[in-house]
Amino acid sequence: MSEARDWLTEGLPHIWLPYTQMATATPPLAVVATQGARIRLGDGRELIDGISSWWTACHGYNHPHIRAAVEQQLATLPHVMFAGLVHEPALRLAQRLAALLPGDLERVFFTESGSVAVEVALKMAIQYWRNKGQEEKKRIVYFRHAYHGDTFATMALCDPEEGMHTLFAGTMPDQLMAELPTDESLRRAFDLLLETHAERLAAVIVEPLVQGAGGMKMHDAQTLAFIAEACTRHKVLLIADEIMTGFGRTGRMFACEEATQLTNTVPDIVCLSKALTGGTLPLAATVARRHVFEAFLSDDPSAALMHGPTYMANALACAAANASLDLFEPVHNSPRLAQVAAIEVRLSAELAPCRELAGIAAVRVKGAIGAVELSGDIDLKHLRLRFAELGVWVRPFGNVVYLMPPFIIAADELATLTAAVRKVLDERAAQL
Ligand SMILES: *Cc1c(COP(=O)(O)O)cnc(C)c1O
């Protein structure tokens, strides 16, 4: 493995890692290969991946169907600019996303990352009202514990205390934070907030059912449906940030479907990314309902949507996304949503014993997401180290230890993950 050591020791001094205090960080692990639910390291060890590479690798790694689609695309058309030119993988993907999403969510704008997909949603919402002659409607309501990205406009929509962005306070647009309307009195307060500010509000943005990076907080479909109805009542657009929840993670193809089923509400704009390409290539999509798109149709060129990332609708990424969507179809004999349902049952049973331990605030499970919220002092560095020592890739943040495994994970691999969580939290409880 001398070759592996060379790229590692020679390259590391030139790398700046994300969310990492580089002075004191534990050295990163060198990965040489991935397969299924496993990550192989340069020193020969193999880790079972409990978090699907930031929640992307829903089919596991190196799925042959996605690999074949990308290889074929690479040979014919890897990329071409997407202004004035279009290509089959992007158009097929747009059509398929429109067919899968509820209601008339049917117009797709492609970008390359989740944060940018949210930025585009914000532009759509603000310009929607501007195009309708209501220029003053440009503020955004977001929720406590929200996370919508790392760029400046999206940082302004992250929980100001728990978020990672407090040091940029004062440099971002001032938006309105609300409590999730999870009970009657919070519902009245939320309704009043929208009523009071309606004339200045462009949109409400929500992570439907599960707030991810803000702490894996969960709410029910009634709450989501109430938010949607309040938005309609007060003429405010609803943006569903499904970047984490989209593509089966919460048990349905999209989390917002649960509210649609209850009250027939459909978000005006949906943001997708993370699992869109099955964890293989960067791609994101902002999908608008018909009435949103129609507000941009005019004789006035300045009423058009003014956005266009250089690599938008990258053909390789679109081919990967189409292949990933294939894998959700029954013809591929891979019942993804049934796998998610089975993971939900196992996570519920296998994480439940954590509730008995000291230093545990809550255990929450939804679809293929299992979260254990900790209380008391938390030594993240130590927890992360212990998980790697136990042969699993689990990376707690803030006050949560969570699992979001690939949907194809085997029952014994999942059992290894949940056993590691119980063991590490048991060790911690003994120290409290
Ligand atoms: C990850 C995430 C984003 C940001 O996506 P990036 O691709 O990291 O920019 C936005 N919203 C939610 C809900 C996310 O989970």
What structural keywords apply?
single chain; Aspartate Aminotransferase, domain 2; 2 domains; binds pyridoxal-5'-phosphate; Aspartate Aminotransferase, domain 1; alpha/beta; four-stranded mixed beta sheet; 14 helices; 37% helix; 432 residues; seven-stranded mixed beta sheet
- Percent of residues in helices: 25-40%
CATH fold naming of the largest domain: Aspartate Aminotransferase, domain 2
Number of domains: 2
Number of beta-strand segments: 16
Question: What share of residues are in beta strands?
Answer: 15-25%
Average of per-residue pLDDT values: 96
Summarize the biggest pleated sheet: 7 strands, mixed
Number of H/I helices: 14
Order of helices and strands: HEEEHHHEHEHEHEEEHEHEEHHHEEHEEH
Estimate the global geometry from the Cα principal axes.
globular
The kinds of small molecule bound in this structure are: pyridoxal-5'-phosphate
Describe the strand arrangement of the main beta sheet, using strand numbers.
4-12-11-10-7-5-6
* CATH class (first level) name of the largest domain: Alpha Beta
- Unreliable stretches covering 5 or more consecutive residues: none
- CATH architecture field of the largest domain: 3-Layer(aba) Sandwich
Rg over CA atoms = 22 Å
Decide which structural class fits the backbone. Answer: alpha/beta
Question: Can you tell me the CATH superfamily of the largest domain?
Answer: Type I PLP-dependent aspartate aminotransferase-like (Major domain)
| End-to-end Cα distance | 40 Å
